[in-house]
């Protein structure tokens, strides 16, 4: 389990010292003595929890909280207000801004520590659930849900940036026969090995490889034109040769292979290229290309 990161924001050195003692052993503690420093720090490193003073020179704790909540990068980071203003109105303001808790600085250190631990536990559970909801359990790749969401955001980015967006659909050849011959557990292992082989040749951090279902994978290539996507497709096909997993029931080849359908935004009809819903057309184009690759003998790609 990785250590939790707690960011403490307070202009008063005595408060910081007291919190250091109260929270010893709860995680890695970082400190900021004013709001703008805290906002700079979270951009470099997103913490698991923020303990936030309210009265500070410059940005107030409320303003810092508002900024954290408004930034997608930090919107899910729990904020606890820790303040000497022990006042019901202030508490209501803090919690209304989205803070998860409001603790008076006069509170006993074990109480502060217990509440911090509770919020760290909830944060960890939240992170685990979020990961599980976007991950394919068999292969560890992104799942269909994450792929669909990313496709929509990347499509909108492509509309704004006018940069090309490419999509590859990859489907294992004669996988039913492989399952029938070797059994379902071996089929699952083949899916894991295929996922790793595909992953190993996906080089850019912005690319997204996902298992879309069954023996079908999707690869989203932002900022990539047809020629670039063809280059990636060739590498993906070579990865099957490197894997060299005996098939045993494929009518055409000795080893497991896959076919690829390629689509690029630049090839769509003009009206679809500029359409906010154009990502559906991109998926359909990749699907049609995959069908063509299957028809022309498999273990190849089609555009
Ligand atoms: P093609 O070359 O035309 O793609 O033929 P294919 O046999 O690969 O395609 P088809 O769609 O007929 O069969 C896909 C098979 O994938 C059927 C199913 O048994 C298998 N399958 C789907 N999901 C899983 C899975 O999670 N694990 C395993 N082991 N097999 C799966
Ligand atoms: Mg203060
Ligand atoms: Mg198949
Ligand atoms: Mg299939």
Automatic annotation (TrEMBL):
One GO cellular component this record assigns the protein to is: plasma membrane
Q: Does the keyword Chaperone apply?
A: no
Q: Which PROSITE patterns match?
A: GGDEF, RESPONSE_REGULATORY
Query: What GO MF terms are annotated?
Result: diguanylate cyclase activity
Gene3D superfamilies cross-referenced by the UniProt entry: 3.30.70.270, 3.40.50.2300
Residues that the record marks as modified (4-aspartylphosphate) are: 53
User: Which keywords has UniProt assigned to this entry?
Assistant: Phosphoprotein
Name a biological process GO annotation: cell adhesion involved in single-species biofilm formation
Domain Response regulatory span(s) in chain numbering: 5-120
Query: What domain of life?
Result: Bacteria
In short, the EC number is 2.7.7.65
Q: Which reaction does it catalyse?
A: 2 GTP = 3',3'-c-di-GMP + 2 diphosphate
**Top EC class of this enzyme:** transferase
Domain GGDEF span(s) in chain numbering: 163-303
Entry-linked InterPro entries:
CheY-like_superfamily, Diguanylate_Cyclase, GGDEF_dom, Nucleotide_cyclase, Rev_trsase/Diguanyl_cyclase, Sig_transdc_resp-reg_receiver
Q: What is the name of this protein?
A: diguanylate cyclase
């Amino acid at each position: 389990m990785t250590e939790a990161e707690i960011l403490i924001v307070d202009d008063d050195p005595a408060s910081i010292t007291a919190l250091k003692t109260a929270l010893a052993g709860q995680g890695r503690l970082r400190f900021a003595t004013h709001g703008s420093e805290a906002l700079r720090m979270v951009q470099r490193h997103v913490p698991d929890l923020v303990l936030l003073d309210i009265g500070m020179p410059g940005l107030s704790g409320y303003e810092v909280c508002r900024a954290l909540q408004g930034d997608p990068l930090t919107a899910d980071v729990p904020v606890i207000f820790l303040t000497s203003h022990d006042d019901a109105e202030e508490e209501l303001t803090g919690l209304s801004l989205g803070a998860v808790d409001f603790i008076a600085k006069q509170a006993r250190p074990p109480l502060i520590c217990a509440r911090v631990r509770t919020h760290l536990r909830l944060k960890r559970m939240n992170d685990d659930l979020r990961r599980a909801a976007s991950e394919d359990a068999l292969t560890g790749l992104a799942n269909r849900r994450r792929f669909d969401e990313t496709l929509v955001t990347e499509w909108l980015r492509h509309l704004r940036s006018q940069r090309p967006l490419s999509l590859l659909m990859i489907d294992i050849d004669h996988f039913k026969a492989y399952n029938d011959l070797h059994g379902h557990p071996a089929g699952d292992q083949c899916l894991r090995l295929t996922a790793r082989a595909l992953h190993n040749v996906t080089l850019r951090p912005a690319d997204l490889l996902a298992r879309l279902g069954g023996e079908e994978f999707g690869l989203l290539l932002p900022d990539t034109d047809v020629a670039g996507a063809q280059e990636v497709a060739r590498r993906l096909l070579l990865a099957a040769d490197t894997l060299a997993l005996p098939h045993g029931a494929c009518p055409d080849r000795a080893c497991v292979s896959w076919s690829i359908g390629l689509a690029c935004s630049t090839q769509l009809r003009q009206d679809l290229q500029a359409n906010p819903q154009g990502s559906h057309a991109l998926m359909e184009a990749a699907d049609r290309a995959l069908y063509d690759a299957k028809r022309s003998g498999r273990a190849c790609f089609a555009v």
